[in-house]
Design goal:
The chain has 359 residues and is α/β, with parallel strands linked by helices. The protein folds into 2 domains: 161 residues, 3-Layer(aba) Sandwich (Rossmann fold); 169 residues, Glycogen Phosphorylase B (Rossmann fold, 3-Layer(aba) Sandwich). It has 13 helices and 12 strands. The strands form 2 sheets. A 6-stranded parallel β-sheet has the order 3-2-1-4-5-6, with helices on both faces. The protein has a 6-stranded parallel β-sheet with strand order 9-8-7-10-11-12, with helices on both faces. It is globular.
């Protein structure tokens, strides 16, 4: 029996945050674009991460281009700011304006890839008559807002594969095959490209060191990153230390430990995309910049502790994952590095880096 593919003239992807999770959802959005090439494809995202979909000065809607390559419309929210001033008149004005714009598109269907109550609630607020979500969302209460609950059928455990399975359910297939056509596409910001090109003119190339992470248990010590940079410098490879808001102290510690072999560089999201495109490889833990590098097909040395590489490891690129056998998967947000993570030595990371570079 042939299952007919539903006809959608417009689809809305809901994946609000964080950086790595948005990157993991891009192949699924590309698969939806591939399945419905003529449909209007929108994306609802936190404003902080909108540059992963559209460059800063480019219009958020209209014909696609290298500045907004995947989606026709980018809708943004700022839930963190709204929560800080929930009873402010200005907050309610912003919420009402954003909701009015979103509802005005009249999307035929919405797919909630986040599985949280706030993302599911926003999906329903879009006014679409059809809201897809997993039967086992990250927050159980989110399923109350779905009109179509999907039992994900996938042979893989990685979050990219799970997102592709949810997209596959929307097109009435058991899964969407991962192919060259269903890959992440990122905006190209000419200003960011020009700035980064001027900062990375070293002919030998460079490695990106990414010492940050969402919480302390996932952070390999900054001093060890500096020691790695010293060893790579012996091979003629310089290191740039990427850091995000609140992580400058980590970058300073890496710089100091590197004894001049590494230098820190602060980037906007668009600049980080441009920087990563030029890197020879990235060394880091389970964090957004590592997943960005993997999506851009940059080789990755991944240093894992309490999170599972099978679910959250580098996907779709050459990589070597280091994880101690003593590490136990645990998403508790401890402040101190996980003990198993500390068992990974500088020598192991340097050896993995050299092996990857010589492939």
């Amino acid at each position: 029996m042939t299952v007919s593919t539903p006809r959608f003239d417009s689809l809305l992807v809901v994946r609000l945050s964080a950086m790595g999770d948005i990157v993991h959802t891009l192949p699924a959005a590309a698969a939806l674009r591939q399945a419905f090439p003529d449909a209007t494809l929108g994306w609802l995202v936190e404003e902080r991460w909108a540059e992963l979909l559209c460059t800063w000065r480019y219009p958020r809607s209209g014909p696609r281009s290298p500045q907004r390559p995947l989606v026709d419309r980018v809708h943004s929210v700022n839930t963190a700011e709204w929560r800080r001033a929930l009873f402010s008149f200005n907050t309610w004005q912003q919420m009402a304006a954003g909701l009015s714009e979103l509802r005005g598109i009249h999307y035929d269907a919405v797919i909630d890839f986040q599985g949280a109550v706030r993302s599911a609630l926003l999906a329903r607020w879009s006014g679409s008559p059809v809201v897809y979500g997993s039967t086992q969302p990250r927050e159980n209460a989110a399923s109350m807002f779905y009109t179509r609950q999907v039992l994900l059928k996938t042979n893989g455990t990685h979050v990219v594969e799970q997102a592709l399975a949810l997209a596959g359910a929307v097109v009435s297939t058991t899964n969407i095959a991962i192919s060259a056509e269903a890959h992440a596409e990122f905006p190209v910001d000419p200003d960011a490209e020009s700035k980064i090109a001027g900062l990375t003119s070293d002919g030998n190339g460079f490695a990106i060191l990414s010492p940050g992470a969402g919480w302390g248990a996932k952070r390999w010590p900054a001093e060890r990153y500096g020691q790695v940079a010293r060893e790579l410098a012996k091979d003629g490879l310089s290191s740039l230390v990427n850091y995000g808001p609140g992580e400058e102290g980590l970058a300073v510690a890496v710089e100091a430990a590197s004894e001049g072999a590494a230098r820190k560089i602060a980037c906007s999201v668009s600049e980080l995309i441009a920087l990563t495109r030029r890197a020879r490889l990235l060394i880091g833990g389970d964090t957004g910049p590592m997943h960005l590098a993997a999506a851009l097909k940059i080789p990755v040395v991944a240093i894992f502790g309490p999170t599972s590489p099978a679910r959250n490891g580098p996907f779709g690129t050459q990589s070597l994952v280091l994880r101690s056998v003593s590490s136990i998967t645990d998403h508790t947000r401890h402040r101190e590095p996980e003990q198993g993570l500390l068992e990974i030595t500088v020598g192991e990371v340097v050896a993995a880096t050299r092996k990857l570079l010589h492939r």
